[in-house]
Specification:
Chains A, B: Keywords: Cytoplasm, DNA-binding, Endonuclease, Hydrolase, Nuclease. Chains A, B: One of its GO terms (molecular function) is hydrolase activity. Chains A, B: Residues 29-118 form the Endonuclease NucS N-terminal PH-like domain. Two copies of one chain form a homodimer. Chain A has helices spanning 10-22, 127-136, 182-198, 216-224, and strands at residues 3-6, 26-38, 42-54, 60-63, 72-74, 78-84, 87-93, 100-114, 122-124, 146-152, 159-164, 170-175, 205-211, 228-231. Chain A is of the alpha+beta class and 233 residues long. Chain A folds into two domains: 3-114, Protein Yojf, Chain: A (Distorted Sandwich), CATH 2.70.180.20; 127-231, 3-Layer(aba) Sandwich (Trna Endonuclease, Chain: A, domain 1). In chain A, helix 3 runs parallel beside helix 4 (216-224). The radius of gyration of chain A is 26 Å and the shape is elongated. At the A-B interface, strand 2, strand 3, strand 8, strand 9 and helix 3 of A face strand 2, strand 3, strand 8, strand 9 and helix 3 of B. Chain B binds a DNA duplex (15 and 15 nucleotides) through strand 5 and helix 3.
Chain lengths: 233, 233
DNA sequence: CGGTTCATGTCGCAC
DNA sequence: GTGCGACGTGAACCG
């Protein structure tokens, strides 16, 4: 099921990779390579030893020594493998779009092929969890808050939680599962403005940003617009 | 320099990985594994064959069959490798923070160690390129626009390009290298509002969003706030 | 397919 | 270290 090659020449490596991908396997290549990307931007990597992962969905990832994100990558397009000039070359072309990645190996130190899993993860602790909590305990938003609906549509987009305050005012709630900055404050402001416009002119609309923490600039933005922040957890 | 093992037992795989990382190498492991993440969120992956890349900076990436992003990962913390119960286990703990990832292998099909490059890329086509273009040809913003400074500070943050229009009005320019949505329109609005507040009350301040394309909702947002959009490239 | 928003976003830079 | 915004963001969700 899992195959491997050590220090193959370009022809053997190309055949190995093509065969493996033909069988629906993923291919891991380690070797000295350089990359060229042209498309939404232009980016090239000098020659150096890297790990290249070619997935069954034709995602190609080029990983260097550090970081979570690949140094170069290609998604969505087709991938062609070839040994030219004694060098293994992957050409990843997003047929229609202009995005094109080329990975050229000076040498392949190691190649492995395997049949990877595609399983879904169990998740929790996300924004929708926070929504559950707020619906279960609306006082987290403000004392006496009464939720009416979630994802209520406005011209500016859906409001996370929509309801009424103890005073009868409309309350729009924006939820964030982590520290929030100015962008989140603006998002809430857009929703509140849209509601003020949509509802009767005399309707009182307030906005509450619910998150574990907030930056100073975001706090000021909220204050300027008469919006409030409610910390949770 | 590059070492490899085929179908090692847990003890051999653990020793191999520990040695390699001790030598500053990166380790690639392929095998049946399950993961547990606990921290900012909770997420777990069921057992399945995956590729695990353990980098010299102690980034650990767990890749499945599809997608650019890893199915699970850990960065920043320390990594401990151990063979317990005949199973290879990576424990990635962000010492102080709560983020913790555990990767437990039922079996290791393949292990490779190599010395990866950490080279910087040549980049172009980014937002700062767009800035160059706008400074070289200010008419891209609007006819007669005269840039005065870049990254001009405001209480809301730095304005990409700051200058004057033909009519003498202050013009704030926000640059985006690709299609923009409501968030970019709000960002420009924040800058313009900050400038209107900061400058003399009688100062005329306008805002221009420069980008290749804009969504309809963003266009409406701009219009509502008297801001404009200028397409480029 | 486009539009919008979420993310364990990550990453880089300035203060 | 925190704050802030860009990113070839990616990925899900919804029309």
């Amino acid at each position: 099921m899992t195959r491997a090659l050590s220090a193959p020449d370009a022809d053997r490596a190309a055949a190995f990779a093509a065969d493996a991908r033909g069988d629906g396997l993923a291919v891991s290549l380690v070797g000295e390579c350089a990359t060229e990307f042209e498309g939404r931007a232009e980016r090239s990597l000098p020659a150096g030893v890297r790990s290249v992962l070619w997935k069954p969905d034709d995602t190609v990832l080029v990983h260097g020594a550090t970081g979570r994100d690949p140094d170069a990558w290609a998604t969505g397009g087709s991938v062609a493998v070839e040994a030219t000039d004694g060098r293994l070359e992957l050409r990843c072309g997003d047929g229609d779009a202009a995005d094109a990645l080329t990975v050229r190996f000076d040498s392949v130190q190691h190649a492995a092929a395997f049949d990877p899993a595609d399983a879904d993860a169990e998740v929790s602790g996300t924004e929708s969890d926070l929504k559950e909590r707020v619906l279960a305990d609306p006082d987290l938003v403000e004392p006496g808050f009464q939720p009416r609906s979630t994802e209520r549509e406005t011209p500016a987009g859906p409001v996370d939680v929509y309801g009424r305050g103890r005073d009868g005012a409309v309350v729009a709630v924006e939820l964030k599962a982590r520290r929030v900055g100015p962008a989140a404050a603006s998002q809430l402001e857009r929703y509140v403005n849209a509601l003020r416009r949509d509802l009767h002119a005399d309707a009182d609309v307030r906005g509450v940003l619910v998150a574990p923490e907030i930056t100073e600039k975001a706090r000021r933005l909220l204050a300027e617009n008469g919006l409030s922040f409610s910390p949770v957890e």
